[in-house]
Amino acid sequence: MKLLVTGGAGFIGANFVLATAQQRPDVEITVLDKLTYAGDRATLSSVTGGPDPRVRLVEGDVADSALVDRLVGELGDGGAVVHFAAESHNDNSLHDPWPFVQTNLLGTYALLEAVRKHGARLHHVSTDEVYGDLPLADPSDDPDRSRFTAETPYNPSSPYSATKAGSDLLVRAWVRSFGVQATISNCSNNYGPWQHVEKFIPRQVTNIIDGVRPKVYGAGTNVRDWIHVEDHNRAVWAVLQRGRIGETYLIGADGEANNLRVVRTLLELAGRDADAYDLVADRPGHDLRYAIDASLLRDELGWRPLHRDLRSGLKATLEWYRDNEAWWRPRKAATEAKYAQLGR
Ligand code: NAD
Ligand code: TDX
Question: Mutual orientation of helices 259-269 and 200-209 as an angle, nearest 10°?
Fold first, then answer.
C-alpha cells in the first residue's frame, strides 16, 4: 500500500510516519512537508536515512497544485492520502492569520482536487476546536456534562480553528458533490514525543528542565481533553482502514484536565514545588473547555486508547524531553522570545 502523508515532519504526522514504518512493513510512505518552523527533517532521520530508506521526504507546499497532483497521481490503486499538514498553533493565528488561510484552506483545496482527479482515498485530520468551546464545569462533579459529538454545530473561535472548520466543510462538500472517497477525524489535544516547544505541555516541560517557572494563561482553569499521540494515530489507522466514506469520527480518550492540574502534576513529577508556576496574560478568545464523545469510534471501529493515565503519560513525556534535548533545544530560545513579546 502506498501512502502520501502531508505534514509528516510535524508532531502528529511524524509520530504517524515513525509508527507506520516500524509496524507496517507493507506500507510505502511519501511525506510531503513544507518544513516550516514546525517541521523538522531530523524527526524522520531514522526512517529517511541509510541505504534502504523506508520513507521518502518531499519538501514542498500542500497548496502547490502541480506538485500535489503529481504525488497523488503516483499513489496508484489502493493508495491513500493522510492529510496532517496545517498551521496548528492558536497563538500564532491570533498574530498572523494569513499562513493559516493559505495552508489550511488552500492546501486542503489543492489536495481535494487531486484526489478527485485521481480517485484516491483521503483521510483528513482535524480538530475538536471546530466546535468552539463548552461551558466550564468541574469534570469530576458533573458526570452528565455535555461533550462534542459529530452533530455538534461548528462554532470556531480563532483564525486557526476557523480555517480548520473551513477545511472540514470543503472535504464534506467534495464527498457529497464529487463522490470523493474521504473521511474526517476531529481529535482533542495531543501530547507525547516530538511536539514543538510552543505548545502547552512541551513548553512547560522544557521550562521546568531549564529551571524556569511554567507560564499558565489566565486563571489556569481552562480544560483540555488530553490524548496521547500514539492513541490518536491508532485511531487514524482504524478510520483509514474501516471508516465509512463521508463519516466524521471524533477521537478522544476521556483525558479532561484543567491547565493548572497539568502544570502542578508536571512540577510534582520533576520534584519541584507544585505552586512554582506563574499566571500570565490570558489568550484572547481563549476557549474554555473541550470534551470529546468518542463513542462512534469505539462502538463502530472497536478503537480503545492504550494510554489511559494522564499522570504516567506526562511522566514519560517529561523523560522523553529530558532524553532528547538536542532535538528541541535549537527552537526553545526563539519560541520564548516570541512569547515574551506577547507578555506570556
Ligand atoms: P505541527 O504544527 O506540529 O505540524 C504541522 C506540519 O505541517 C509541519 O511539519 C509543517 O512543516 C507542515 N506544514 C505546514 N504548512 C505546510 C504546507 N503549506 N505544506 C506542507 N506542509 C506544511 O502540527 P500537529 O500538532 O502535528 O498537527 C497535525 C494536524 O493535526 C493538524 O492538521 C492539526 O490541525 C491536527 N490536530 C492537532 C492536534 C494537537 O493537539 N496538536 C489535535 C487535533 C488535531
Ligand atoms: O504557555 C502556555 N500556557 C497556557 O496556559 C500555552 C502555550 C498554552 N496555555 C493554555 C492554552 C490552552 O488552554 O494551555 C492550553 C493548551 O494550549 P495549546 O497547547 O496552545 O493548545 P490548544 O490551543 O488547546 O490547541 C491544541 O489542541 C487542538 C493544538 O495546538 C491544536 O493544533 C489542536 O487543534
Answer: 30
Amino acid, single-letter form, for residue 22: Q
DSSP reduced 3-state for 44: helix
Given a contact cutoff of 8 angstroms between Cβ atoms, the answer to whether 164 and 150 are in contact is no
Mutate-to-test residue for ligand 2 from 88, 134, 164, 189, highest number of ligand atoms within 8 A of CB? 189
Q: Is the pLDDT of residue 144 over 90?
A: no
Residue 140 has pLDDT above 70, yes or no: no
pLDDT interval class at 52 (50, 70, 90): confident
Q: Among this protein's residues, is 290 annotated catalytic?
A: no
The model's pTM is: 0.98
Q: Which residues pair with 32 in a beta bridge?
A: 6, 58
Other beta carbons within 10 Å of 279: 12
- Overall average pLDDT of the 184-208 stretch: 98
Tell me which residues have their CB closer than 6 angstroms to ligand 1: 6-7, 9-13, 32-36, 38-39, 61-63, 84-88, 103, 107, 125, 127, 164, 187, 189-190, 196
Angle between helices 65-73 and 108-118 (to 10 degrees): 40
pLDDT digits (tens, 9 = 90+) for 158-182: 999 999 999 999 999 999 999 999 9
Q: Evaluate whether 90 touches 97 at the Cβ level (below 8 Å).
A: no
Residue 190 Cβ < 6 Å to ligand 2 = no
Q: Kindly give the number of the ligand 1 atom that is closest to the alpha carbon of 102.
A: 18
Q: Which three cell numbers stand for residue 207?
A: 521550562
